[in-house]
Amino acid sequence: MLTDKLKSSLKNPKLNAWDSVNAYFDEAILNVSNKHRSMGCLLVNSLCESINYDKNMKKVVRGALSSIRKAIVARLKEAQSKGKLRKGVSVEFAADVLMNTLHGLRVNSRDGKNAKQLKELIKHSVNTLKK
Fold first, then answer.
1. Which residue in 115, 86, 116 sits closest to 98, CA to CA?
2. Do residues 81 and 96 lie in contact, with contact meaning Cβ atoms separated by under 8 Å?
């Protein structure tokens, strides 16, 4: 499932860098049913609750999150090379902002924020990084 979401968004060569980032947020957050969104994300739930107690779980969760971050970094490098990353913002920092946004969105989903509210948060975070 994660691999499919990455292929259709961040690893989709038909999309430009920022469109791929937005497509990932759509796939991971917005296109999920309200019921599933309210349950949160298994990765984030596990990150918050389980990894300190289970070394195997820690490895799996960190590996999955690392895959997402690597795909984001690759697209941010593309944006930077095309002059589409805000001046003075490093690729690494921008990736941290987007990962933080992803985690926050998933927590906000559990807290009952609707898709419109989440989309506004995504738009704000992405726009702070785009040139």
1. 86
2. no
Phi, psi of 128 (to 5 degrees): -70, -20
Map the chain to HEC letters.
Answer: CHHHHHHHCCCCCCCCHHHHHHHHHHHHHHCCCHHHHHHCCHHHHHHHHCCCCCHHHHHHHHHHHHHHHHHHHHHHHHHHHCCCECCCCCHHHHHHHHHHHHHHHHHHHHCCCCHHHHHHHHHHHHHHHEC
* CA–CA dist 56, 76 (Å, integer): 30
What would the mean pLDDT of 7-21 be, rounded to a whole number? 96
Q: Distance between CA 49 and CA 14 in Å, rounded?
A: 37
Give 61-74 pLDDT, tens digit per residue. 788 889 999 999 99
Q: Of how many residues is the chain composed?
A: 131
CATH code for the domain defined by 2-129: 1.10.357.10
